[in-house]
Amino acid sequence: ATMPPLLSAIANAGRHGVLVKSAVVMERLGRVDAAALDKTGTLTEGTPRVTDVRPLPGSGLDGSGLDEDGLDEDGLLALAAAAEHPSEHPLARAVLTAARARGLTPAPATDFTSTPGVGVRATVDGHVVAVTAPSELPLAATELNGTDRAAAAGPERAGRSAVAEPEQAERAERASRAAAVVAELEEAGRTAVLVFWDGVPVGVLGVADRLRPDAGATVAALEALTGVPPLLLTGDNPRAARQLAAEAGITEVRAGLLPQDKVAAVREWEAAGRRVLVVGDGVNDAPALAAAHVGVAMGRAGSDLALETADAVVVRDELATVPAVVALSRRARSLVV
Ligand code: ADP
Ligand code: MG
């Protein structure tokens, strides 16, 4: 007997290196009429490299354990690597690779937590080390300052704010120095990552990633298939995102998004009558993959959560196979009727 068209399309997609999880998904792929792509690990190769290691100079804070000159480059990288160790984020792997390349051994970390689209936090040598997006910087300069902490401790402790004032000035000074480094790196198209030590910014890392070789062709093919320009959805900063998007031929960019913002963008489009194809790789993409008409995960470096949530998985790590399976589905559907 000949195989039903949708089943042979699934087999065919498999030969292209795409695992389509069901006949229903194979059928839906042909109906998508809009596409949204994640940046890091999806439009890019997902193997970002640390290009800049910038400790913030300045005297140590009271009880911070930092010496007069703060951290040196290796110290900063080792600290970041210690906190990033358990993370499966591409940025975490970049930090660990850079630390290893310098022969550094990260200290053991406990109490690891990660916030998708924001960063990680862990306890290292009894201190809280956080490695995050620059969006956390204003918080460090304000919420964590000495006065607020004293106020939070209750009125009987309010007198402490006088003692804490120099510390607060130091924090604000460090935050503004960090912001300047962040702006400089982002201007150069890098992703800036901040390192905090007990809430104090102690350094900035610059990270750069390459566009996939088939990114431009994929964007063009998706636009031809759907009739609308594909949208880039990213948690990264607008400057780095726009530069990369332009290289891939993407004009529609939404940056600085948290996982729920990616979902909102998909829902907005679907409310306007579009059936949205979402392609992503990260834990931060999982909710959007679930909300999409069809969610496709990049398999090689994709997080387990993305692979489980997605309706289809790109196993062979070629982005251009995504529009190829959309076309496959359309051909199969024309045979089904
Ligand atoms: P994208 O949407 O482009 O895949 P993410 O949402 O995964 O990016 O991450 C958005 C931003 O959050 C990153 O650019 C980075 O600043 C920060 N971030 C997320 N995870 C980490 C991590 N493990 N270490 C450092 N920064 C992180
Ligand atoms: Mg990603």
Automatic annotation (TrEMBL):
It is found in: Cell membrane. Residues 150-171 are annotated as: Disordered. Residues 150-166 have a biased composition (Low complexity). Belongs to the cation transport ATPase (P-type) (TC 3.A.3) family. Type IB subfamily. This is Heavy metal translocating P-type ATPase. It comes from Kitasatospora phosalacinea. The lineage of its organism: Bacteria, Bacillati, Actinomycetota, Actinomycetes, Kitasatosporales. The chain holds residues 305 to 641 of 701 of the full protein.
